[in-house]
Amino acid sequence: MIESHHTLDPEATLDTPRPPVRAEVDPARRRVFTAFSLGTLLVGLLVSGLTSSWLDFRYDASLLYIGPLLAIGFLVAEQLTIDVDVKRVGWTISFTEIPLILGLLTAPFEVVLAANLLAGLGAQVGRRAATHVVYNAGVMCLEIAVPFAVATAVQRALPELAPEWFGPVLGTLTSPLISCAFALAALHVLGGAMRVSAAGRLSVRTLAVGLLNTSVGLIGYEVAKSTRWGWLLVALVAVAVVGLYRAYSGLLREQRDLEALSDVSLSVARSGQAAVRNPSEPEENTTSVSEWEPVAERIREQLNATRVVLRLRLDPRGEVSTLVAGEPLPEAARIAGPHALRDDPLLQLPGSHVRSFRTLEAPDEVRRALRMRGAYESLVVPLRGASQLLGAVEAHDRVSRWRGFGRADVRLLHTLASHLATAMDNRRLLARLRHDAYHDLLTGLLNRAGFREMAAEELRAGRTAVVLRVDLDLLTTVSEALGYTWGDRIVVAAGQRMLGELGPEVPLARLEANSFAVLLSDHTEEQAHAVGERLCEVIGESYPLDRLVVEAGGVAGYSSSAPSDAENENDIDTLLQHADVAVRAARNAKDVVRGYAPAMGQVFLRRFQLVTQFRQALDTGQVEVHYQPKVALPGRQVVGAEALVRWWHPEYGRLDPDEFVPVVEATGLVDALTSFVMERALIKVREWMDRDLRMSVAVNLSVRNLNDESFPDRVSEALLRHDVPPELLTFELTESSVMEEPERSMPVLRRLHALGVVLAVDDFGTGYSSLAYLRTLPVDEVKIDKSFVLGMGTDLSDMAVVRTIVELGHSLDLVVVAEGVEDDAARDQLVGMRCDIAQGYLISRPLPEDRFEAWLQARTVKARGPKSETVLTLVH
């Protein structure tokens, strides 16, 4: 006969001749099936009684061994089955027709019926599969009664025309057809559906296999009956055929198991591809329970189980999700919570092996757990990952009416569990890698890549997006004083404040260091401006760190994909760049929030061009050195000049130093600029010395020069190369440049001072300007900032500041230089204060080399100095 376990719908499974009907389907259908089972039993008993009364029972001594042999034959026939898969339909081939035709040929009806019922129902009880005894008993009665009635009717109707075996053959063929018909009827009662064509094909295949088994049994009977030692020959052939069938069945089972493993792997891979989420989603949301439904259903089909339950830890918090394939799981068995796998007696699984539980053999707590699940047998295997228990797989009650789960099922489930555990581990690893690829490790926010992905998706969807960049202004001294870990804590706190203000639905990213980006969908620029102000206010609040309170600020800039005065911008990189330009514009303008304007881009493009073209400008002579003279007071002798850099750009014309020098300093090209100016200045000093003029030149230094430990060596080499005394070279430095990194700048200053060069503090009075600070610096001059000198004539406080600086400098044996002298009154006041040197437009503007030489000749007179050197005195 043929037994099909093809799944027709989620709640009905066909298994001819006796289908499983334990599914928790509609209670009304269950009641109908119960009535149908009782009807089947009554019909079977009625037909059996009529057949028994119609046939004459003849007792024979041979029945004492024929009956048990037939029972053994029916039992063996049910045990020796071959499972064949054709596409999505599984066929179970058994040999029950063989003992049936032998019974028709050798034994009375009552003996064959008793043997069949004893073997069938006894095997069900022994296999604890007695779930539908009423239905099965009725079908078993009909499977024997109808063949005997048909065989007897044929023999009596055609006693001379048909051979002796013709009636039993026809009767035997009715048995699988009856079982198939009742199975289809049971399926219909349970709400299943099977097309007429499919039912017809099933009947034809059932009849074909039944005819083959009947022929084998008849031939064996005839050979054993008519040939001496024929029974031995039949036995040998039967053993060989059974062995061949079993081997073939094993190969088919292995093939199906491999296909199942392949299907499960493909299902996991497809669900993994489908699990690619939005980068803004948390890592734990990268997997959903529904993605595992094909996996659970495929395992159920392969094990031929009534139900497969997957209990998976998909939530990092340890919550257990339950997925059921097949019969619905009773609500009481849907365990949850982080300790669900530990508390359930069926799921307390040490190791990684499959455990089998049966109601008749299990301890009380396991039996209660099985009953809670509505199951009589269960295979349970844990899903163990590399470091934790990921879940468990349960298979409940094999569909077969005879057999429970066997060794092959245990091996398959163990292998499937290993594959699933590996797949889950891989999925978690991929999820973490994907999460780390799109998120900042410090703050947990999106990183630049994740933000770009999110914003690009919004732009592709045609939505208007505003990119808002927010920079946290945190003093570097905080990290230096407290350590970078404390600085990181402030960055994390700022990110959390902004996240709390925006809400989790608004994408927020940390781009780098103290810079954040916000994606505002369908916002106007006015709304973005308001959001930027709120965020800057939030992150500008003080940060309490243990016993300390750290102050910080914020500045923001934004750029919209739909600006009002330009075409729509759909490039996220451009929007980020524009937002960055707006931030720099806000910082330069001392604003809190600025929106991007196209003119800003031109300004920063110009700065970029200046940076890229500066090195070439040095080599091509576009950069020149101008000199502004310095005169001693009160004698007005020209004692030196300050070397000032000027750049004549071929496209932009004359560039103000305030425009390109900060850009050059920020990009690291200031070393080349300082070396250029120092070389030109030393060349000029050497020329003056060759003319017996003793004049010094002052060169400005930047922060980078003071942080360069090799700078004093380069200065020493240049002085030797040009043969210039070190006292004729002056380096001017600002207080802020020294104090930015004093631990690095102070050693450099001491080495320069040891060389003999003159060190001057420029713009004195605008920085730290404390006596204690000035005493620690190895300097020789102080230059009063021109803002105080210019204000002396109108502001008495400025005059007091200048007087104080002059007195302070002299008390420390320092030369005092006043810059910004533009009128005679200021010069006279400085003379009265005993200031040493004056510099400013009253004397001369900065001049190119040739004009400076002409100025020296036109406005000075030569005189012999105390060392027979020529000195220049300014003409009145």
Summarize this, please?
Residues 607-860 form the EAL domain. With 876 residues, the protein is of the alpha+beta class.
Key words describing this protein structure:
876 residues; alpha+beta; Arp2/3 complex 21 kDa subunit ARPC3; Beta-Lactamase; Alpha-Beta Plaits; eight-stranded mixed barrel; five-stranded antiparallel β-sheet; disordered N terminus
Please render the helix and strand layout as text.
Elements: E1 2-4, E2 7-9, E3 12-13, H1 27-54, H2 63-79, E4 82-86, E5 89-93, H3 97-106, H4 109-126, H5 133-157, H6 166-189, H7 196-226, H8 230-274, H9 293-303, E6 305-312, E7 321-326, H10 340-343, E8 355-358, H11 364-373, E9 377-384, E10 389-398, H12 407-438, H13 448-460, E11 465-473, H14 476-482, H15 484-502, E12 508-512, E13 515-521, H16 525-539, E14 543-545, E15 548-550, E16 553-560, H17 572-588, E17 593-595, H18 598-620, E18 623-632, E19 637-649, E20 653-655, H19 657-666, H20 670-690, E21 696-700, H21 703-706, H22 711-722, E22 729-734, H23 735-740, H24 742-755, E23 758-764, H25 771-776, E24 781-784, H26 786-790, H27 796-811, E25 815-819, H28 824-832, E26 837-839, H29 849-859, E27 860-864, E28 870-874
Parallel strand pairs: 16-17, 19-21, 21-22, 22-23, 23-24, 24-25, 25-26
Antiparallel strand pairs: 1-5, 2-3, 4-5, 6-7, 6-10, 8-9, 9-10, 11-13, 11-16, 12-13, 14-15, 18-19, 18-26, 19-20, 19-28, 27-28
Describe what this molecule looks like in 3D.
Pfam families: EAL, GAF, GGDEF. With 876 residues, this protein is of the alpha+beta class. It folds into four domains: 2-226, Arp2/3 complex 21 kDa subunit ARPC3 (Orthogonal Bundle), CATH 1.10.1760.20; 262-438, GAF domain (Beta-Lactamase); 448-596, Alpha-Beta Plaits, CATH 3.30.70.270; 627-850, TIM Barrel (Alpha-Beta Barrel). It is built from 29 helices and 28 strands. It has an eight-stranded mixed beta barrel, surrounded by four helices. The longest helix has 45 residues, at 230-274. The protein is rod-shaped, with a radius of gyration of 50 Å. The termini are far apart.
